[in-house]
Amino acid sequence: xxxxxxxxxxxxxxxxxxxxxxxxxxxxxxxxxxxxxxxxxxxxxxxxxxxxxxxxxxxxxxxxxxxxxxxxxxxxxxxxxxxxxxxxxxxxxxxxxxxxxxxxxxxxxxxxxxxxxxxxxxxxxxxxxxxxxxxxxxxxxxxxxxxxxxxxxxxxxxxxxxxx
Length: 164
Prior knowledge:
By secondary structure, the protein is of the alpha+beta class. The protein has six helices and five strands.
């Protein structure tokens, strides 16, 4: 194996509004670097194959599965994790709606669902039911049957304090 693929690199990016210097192997998964190096454990690993959405984060405003993103790919990027959604102690409207509707059950899918909903509402502030289904389509939940999650998104978009 060449040293080019085994040597660690420094990657500068912004995570939740804070400039960060990450040191990792170029192909290390963003998911692992966020959880292990930055201790941002809100981002969950569900399948590790990009199929479930539990590890979803926003990279430059695009919803991605962090288990599929090599850390080198985020050089210079703006990353937002579930920890960066609230404004201090003030929960984001989507987070509050998840609590109020019971949309969060075991918690594995919740961070990815919340980020997918935040992303959806940033693009489509008044989504239709079809928009919500499409916006959350990459996220799997094994607990709720999705209705409480859809209810949470509807409740969140009825609030005036939606922000990305």
